[in-house]
């Protein structure tokens, strides 16, 4: 699965949920599968409750616009988290660099200006 596609789908949603009992309108639902549960059984419920998008493994939902079929829900969630963290780090680094540039220019302007006359 293309990590950029996962990230794009996530960014179009208001949050992430793995439990349809607490999902909110517009959130991404990731259907996780384990030895005692199968989140794929709740895809329809997630959509009915207003999920913005769904990642699931069940091919029955492949024709739905708001569903992306993934090989493994947990692995997809991990890839998404990693991609988002990288995006956040890059944005933070750029923002910090811009802030430091602005501060250094302002500091230079202050130190090079003439002092106020003394009374």
Structural overview:
The protein is of the alpha/beta class and 119 residues long. It has one domain: MurE/MurF, N-terminal domain (Udp-n-acetylmuramoylalanyl-d-glutamate--2,6- Diaminopimelate Ligase, Chain: A, domain 1). Helices cover 46% and strands 10% of the residues. It is built from three helices and four strands, in the order αββαββα. The chain has helices at residues 3-11, 43-48, 73-112, and strands at residues 16-17, 28-30, 53-56, 67-69. A four-stranded parallel sheet has the order 1-2-3-4. α2 (43-48) links the parallel β2 (28-30) and β3. α1 packs across α3 (73-112). It starts with a helix and ends in a 7-residue tail after the last helix.
What topology does this entry show?
Blueprint: H1 3-11, E1 16-17, E2 28-30, H2 43-48, E3 53-56, E4 67-69, H3 73-112
Parallel strand pairs: 1-2, 2-3, 3-4
Assign the structural class, choosing from mainly alpha, mainly beta, alpha/beta, alpha+beta, or little secondary structure: alpha/beta
State the oligomer.
Answer: single chain
Query: What gross morphology would you assign?
Result: elongated
Mean pLDDT: 84
The residue ranges in which pLDDT falls below 50 over 5 or more consecutive positions are none
Q: How many distinct beta strands?
A: 4
CATH classification class: Alpha Beta
Q: Percent range for helical residues?
A: 40-55%
Note the beta-strand portion.
5-15%
Over all CA atoms, what is the radius of gyration?
Answer: 23 Å
CATH homologous superfamily annotation: MurE/MurF, N-terminal domain
